[in-house]
Structures are given as C-alpha cells and as structure tokens.
Write a structure and sequence with these properties.
Largest sheet: none
Structural class: mainly alpha
Order of helices and strands: HHHHHHHHHHHHH
Shape: globular
Radius of gyration: 19 Å
Length: 324
C-alpha cells in the first residue's frame, strides 16, 4: 500500500513544478538580447529578435500562471522551496526574468518595458533582502554553497541595464553597489567551497557557468551608468573573458553529465559575455572583438537551442516536475 502511494506521488506535475524553471526565461531572454544587439550593431535580420521576444514573453506568462497555481494548490511545497538552502536562490530568477524582458522591450514597446522594470526591480530588491536574511538566520553549511547563490545578489547588476531612463541614476548605483560588493564576498565563499571541500554533485556542475555572469553583466551595467570605458570597466570585461576560457578549459567536467534543469545555467552567462563583447566592439571598433562577438553568438545560440531541445524532450518523457 505504501509503495503504491509513493509511486502515485510523481504523477502530479504541478506539485513538483520547480522554481528553477524560470531560468529558462533568463536563457531565452539573454539570447533575445544577443540578437537585438546583433541587429543594431551588425545589421542581422530583425526577425530573429522579434521571434525570440514573442516566445520568451509567452513562456514567461505560462510559467507565472503555472507557479501561481502551485502557490494556490500546494502552498506547503512553495514554502519548502523558500526554506531550501539552494532553491531559495532561484526565486530571484522571476524578478531577473522581468528585468531581462524590460531590457528586450526597450526597442519595441517602452510602456511594457517600464512596467516590467518597476515590478522586476521592486521584486528583486525584496528577494535580495529575503535571501540575505535567510542566510543570516539559518545555520547553513559550506556544502550548501554553489554559484546559484549569485542569482539573487548579482542580479542587482541587471537593474541599471534595464533602468536607465526610468529612475534616477542614484537608485541604479545603489543596486550596482550591492551587486558588486556581494559578488566579491560570495565569490570568496564559493571558491573556498570548490577548492577545499567535496566537488559539486553532477546536477550542480552547470551552475559553474554562473561565475561568468557577474563580471560580464557588471561591465555592461557600469558602462550604462558611466558611459566610460575606463580601467575598472576593462577589468570587469577581462574577468568575464577569463572565466569563459577557464570553463571551456574544464570542458571534460561538463560533457558527460546527464540532463538536469540546471543545464539552463549554461545559457544566460554565455549570453551575458556575448553581450559584453558586442558592447566592447561598439566602444572600440576593434576587429578582434567583432570576431569574438560572432564566435560567442554562435556558441550561445547552439547552447540555448540544445538545452531547450533537451528540456522539451524530457518534459515529453515526464522526467521534469517530479519529486526528487
């Protein structure tokens, strides 16, 4: 009898709908921004960007509707995720998704961009404080740390990118300061975890790519705030490139892992470094950065398409939204 009830549990997909699914919006939204910049900088066909923004927006509202249903029907499961030392970090993916959508809509529909920004920025600062309070009030262990911890904190760096023209720069600098400060703190913690403790479980290995995002996004955010390609901005850009090379140097760590929803962690960081490289080309007109922009754009597109295909494949096999 007990065995039958255990087997019946996974059949309810909504109950185990994971908050990590919002990482799909971050990946698709990042790719949308890449094609928008390819259009504006290299005259790529606009149809790629418009198609992607349509798909990303529709998927975002589907995920929001689904998770709201989960909150209504399975509130206790949502509370478990909010109290989970790893899953709690992915709630900020909701607000980051809104901020990314805000950035994508700036060239199409300013009113929608503004709405996404105000809701996303407000929600994100709430998740930032909520997560830090969780860290302070709970007895976490070093094994709980992983690069996903960057999501609620360093996501603050996206706010200035989406918010230029909507709010005063002093507010955007506040978000930028929080993101940069805690990026340095968290990087030290996670590097300690990586070097001196047990390696990550295979399902968490893709989150290593999140190491790319803070300097890459920080570079774009800093340029938006200062309009200055100075020494500090070039340090941020160089660190983003360094982490890309480091992770590609470690490719053997990633090629054999089986699919998890955490594969979406490959996508947004690659989109971020691609966007930073296109911006660097805009600022310098250096041929090297033009070539690098094309290379990163191709790699990012292939990664997003591959991860999207594997996600759909595993959804059809009913291997996602199950009890872990």
């Amino acid at each position: 009898m007990q065995q039958e009830s255990i087997k019946a549990i996974p059949s309810n997909r909504l109950q185990f709908f994971p908050i990590m699914m919002f990482a799909t919006i971050m990946g698709l939204g990042g790719l949308t921004l890449v094609f928008e910049r390819l259009y504006s900088t290299f005259n790529f066909p606009k149809v790629f960007a418009t198609t992607l923004i349509t798909i990303t927006t529709i998927l975002f509202f589907i995920l929001i509707f689904t998770y709201l249903l989960k909150i209504i029907k399975y509130k206790e499961e949502v509370i478990k995720e909010l109290n989970h030392p790893i899953r709690i970090n992915f709630f900020a993916a909701i607000s980051i998704s809104m901020l990314i959508l805000s950035a994508t809509y700036k060239d199409y529909y300013m009113e929608a961009s503004e709405i996404f920004f105000y809701v996303g920025a407000s929600l994100h600062i709430f998740f930032t404080f909520y997560t830090i309070r969780f860290w302070i009030n709970n007895n976490l262990e070093i094994i709980h740390s992983n690069p996903a911890w960057f999501i609620p904190i360093v996501g603050n760096l996206i706010v200035p990118i989406a918010g230029i023209g909507f709010v005063d720069n002093q507010i955007l600098i506040f978000y930028f300061a929080v993101g940069v400060f805690f990026w340095i703190i968290l990087f030290s913690i996670i590097l300690n975890r990586i070097i001196f403790h047990n390696p990550f479980a295979p399902k968490f290995l893709p989150t290593m790519f999140i190491l790319i995002a803070p300097p890459a996004i920080g570079f774009i955010s800093y340029i938006k705030l200062t309009s200055s390609l100075d020494f500090f901005s070039q340090i941020l850009f160089s660190l983003g490139i360094f982490f890309v090379i480091l992770l590609f140097f470690m490719y053997k760590n990633f090629v054999k892992i089986k699919f998890f929803i955490s594969w979406w962690a490959f996508t947004f960081p690659m989109a971020a470094v691609t966007l930073s490289t296109i911006l660097m080309y805009d600022l310098t007109q250096n041929f090297f950065y033009e070539v690098l922009s094309y290379i990163f754009s191709v790699i990012t597109t292939i990664i997003v398409l591959l991860v999207a295909f594997k996600t759909v494949q595993h959804i059809l096999k009913q291997e996602i939204c199950i009890m872990e």
